[in-house]
């Protein structure tokens, strides 16, 4: 009996010790988060160092200190978990992106954004995969010569193609000789999806929505759609056995990808509409604004969890849920709840981003992964260099051709994407971040650990690419954009984009910036009905907006609420304010 009680006591003591260690780790991590916020604020005036680079740098420095204190055993306070990233950290970031997006700019350039974010991601993934698995020149020998009408920008790029292809071919041969380990076609496709995921946060912090609305909209929209496409593509690759691929398997793969993409979007829209309908009908604000704020936050998170439950893309679902909730639900709550939710979503997203980059910086020095490549550190560096080169080429292979296709549909020269803007879009997508890290961990580790040399090399290479691209390319972003866009204000006037009005017209807050915009308002001007089929084809964005606004005003907003469509009752979200009434 004594031995039994002694055993229980020792186990409880070990449990208490483990709990205390976790508390210590969380205390240090929270202190580091506070340090990142303070240092980021102090460096904000320079516009060189953003929160991402600051968090990465602090994470690396902290990892070095922990590595020295632990005698080279560990550099981390927490063990990386894909569940922590995908279930708790990513949803607030993506939802806030959809909630804060300037919808007029996003949907006005929707086709171009989808070209870059979806089609471009698939092209980039294919080039990275092909570059790693096959000889580079086999893929590019069949690459059709672009017609002369593509202009000087494409002709200049086309002249460089033979040199680029020869460099890729040489890199491929080096990659094959490095004897990394057993990787099949499924692994190469997964690597393509991992490194197709971009992180354009550094560029977005330099660009201005008001000075360069077209460019900001394209970079921002492509970044979100790109992340969603990469994750959907990665999940589709993981669910198929591609070792013996044939036409049937390829068709099933494409069908599964489209199914995930479409159903995820529809689920996000449906969840947003349900939240708008519930809040509009029940008027929680009459009794407690806390309830409607809590319901908005929980419904936003529910959309993501439902997508994961049904094996869909949570990123796409929560992004479009954010767009729908900002267009309908947000207008159905009281004024104080609007302020609260706006700040709450932005704050949660901000803290989650810092948390991710801080951890990535600390995990970069994890000794467990680096010991597998300690006998040949040059291998990891070489793999990282090849991957970075393929990323740059893969991105150039779709940005410039797809920009040309997009420009063909634009009649006004001011609406076309100039070569300098194309270069900035290309540059913005060179940086890799948390999504690439999470997908790499999901593929090549088990609960944050790896015991295979090939997997360790891919993890260390991913870490190297993320650190190098975020820090080096991120620091070069500000002077590069200043060089290419020396007079952004003049450019913004030439683009002929009217600034978006703020949605909450009854108040103005510094944190809200330009605030929410709505599809029902185009700079205060009425859009004429297209008078002919030619008018419909020559101005498709205005045409779609015209018919969408008629449908929205006639059916959607009377049912789900929105600006000016919430009936007034005592205690309801609608204030008796002429600015809130629909005309």
TrEMBL record:
GO biological process: regulation of intracellular pH; regulation of stomatal closure; sodium ion import across plasma membrane
Gene Ontology MF annotations: potassium:proton antiporter activity; sodium:proton antiporter activity
Spans traversing the lipid bilayer: 20-43, 55-72, 113-134, 154-175, 257-279, 299-324, 344-362, 382-402, 423-442, 454-476
Membrane topology: Multi-pass membrane protein
Annotated catalysed reactions: Na(+)(in) + H(+)(out) = Na(+)(out) + H(+)(in); K(+)(in) + H(+)(out) = K(+)(out) + H(+)(in)
Gene3D superfamilies linked to this entry: 6.10.140.1330
Cellular component, GO, one term: plasma membrane
Keyword terms: Ion transport, Membrane, Potassium, Potassium transport, Sodium, Sodium transport, Transmembrane, Transmembrane helix, Transport
Primary localisation category: membrane
Subcellular location, record wording: Membrane
Keyword Lipid metabolism: no
Domain Cation/H+ exchanger transmembrane: start-end pairs: 30-481
Annotated PANTHER family: SODIUM/HYDROGEN EXCHANGER (PTHR10110), SODIUM_HYDROGEN EXCHANGER 2 (PTHR10110:SF117)
Official protein name in the record: Cation/H+ exchanger transmembrane domain-containing protein
Organism: Salix brachista
């Amino acid at each position: 009996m004594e031995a039994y009680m002694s055993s229980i006591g020792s186990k409880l003591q070990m449990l208490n010790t483990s709990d205390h260690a976790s508390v210590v780790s969380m205390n240090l991590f929270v202190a580091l988060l506070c340090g990142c916020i303070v240092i980021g604020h102090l460096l904000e005036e320079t516009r060189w160092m953003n929160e991402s680079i600051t968090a990465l740098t602090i994470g690396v420095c902290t990892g070095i200190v922990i590595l020295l204190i632990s005698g080279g055993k560990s550099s981390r306070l927490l063990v990386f978990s894909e569940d922590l990233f995908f279930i708790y950290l990513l949803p607030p970031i993506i939802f806030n992106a959809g909630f804060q997006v300037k919808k007029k700019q996003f949907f006005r350039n929707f086709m171009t954004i989808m070209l870059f974010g979806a089609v471009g991601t698939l092209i980039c993934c294919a080039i990275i995969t092909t570059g790693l698995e096959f000889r580079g020149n086999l893929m590019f020998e069949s690459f059709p010569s672009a017609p002369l009408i593509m202009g000087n920008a494409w002709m200049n790029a086309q002249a460089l193609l033979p040199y680029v292809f020869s460099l890729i071919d040489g890199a491929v041969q080096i990659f094959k000789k490095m004897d990394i380990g057993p990787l099949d076609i499924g692994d190469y496709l997964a690597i393509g999806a991992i490194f197709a995921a971009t992180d354009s946060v550094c560029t977005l912090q330099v660009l201005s929505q008001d000075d360069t609305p077209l460019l900001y909209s394209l970079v921002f929209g492509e970044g979100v759609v790109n992340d969603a496409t990469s994750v959907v593509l990665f999940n589709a690759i993981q669910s198929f056995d591609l070792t013996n691929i044939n036409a049937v398997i390829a068709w099933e793969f494409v069908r599964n990808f489209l199914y995930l993409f479409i159903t995820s979007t529809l689920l996000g829209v449906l969840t947003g509409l349900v939240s708008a309908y519930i809040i509009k009908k029940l008027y929680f604000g009459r009794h407690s604004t806390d309830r409607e704020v809590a319901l908005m936050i929980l419904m936003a998170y529910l959309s993501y969890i439902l997508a994961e439950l049904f094996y869909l893309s949570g990123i796409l679902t929560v992004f479009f849920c954010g767009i729908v909730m900002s267009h309908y639900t947000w207008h159905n709550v009281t004024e104080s709840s609007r302020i609260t939710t706006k700040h709450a979503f932005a704050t949660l997203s901000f803290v989650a981003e810092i948390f991710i980059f801080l951890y990535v910086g600390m995990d970069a020095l994890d000794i467990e992964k680096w010991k597998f490549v300690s006998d040949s550190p040059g291998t990891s560096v070489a793999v990282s260099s090849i991957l970075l080169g393929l990323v740059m080429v893969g991105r150039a292979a779709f940005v410039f051709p797809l920009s040309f296709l997009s420009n063909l549909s634009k009649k006004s020269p001011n609406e076309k994407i100039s070569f300098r803007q194309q270069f900035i879009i290309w540059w913005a997508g060179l940086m890799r971040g948390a999504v690439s890290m999470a997908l790499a961990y999901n593929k090549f580790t088990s609960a944050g650990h790896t015991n295979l040399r090939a997997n360790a090399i891919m993890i260390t290479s991913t870490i190297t690419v993320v650190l190098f691209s975020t820090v080096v390319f991120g620091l070069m972003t500000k002077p590069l954009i200043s060089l290419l866009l020396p007079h952004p204000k003049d450019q913004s006037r030439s683009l002929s984009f009217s600034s978006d009005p703020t949605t909450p017209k009854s108040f103005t807050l510094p944190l809200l910036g330009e605030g929410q915009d709505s599809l029902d308002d185009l700079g205060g001007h009425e859009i004429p009905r297209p008078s002919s089929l030619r008018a419909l084809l020559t101005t498709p964005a205005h045409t779609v907006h015209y018919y969408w606004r008629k449908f929205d005003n006639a059916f959607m907003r009377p049912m789900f609420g929105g600006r000016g469509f919430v009936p007034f009752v005592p205690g309801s979200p609608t204030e008796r304010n002429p600015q809130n009434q629909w005309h």
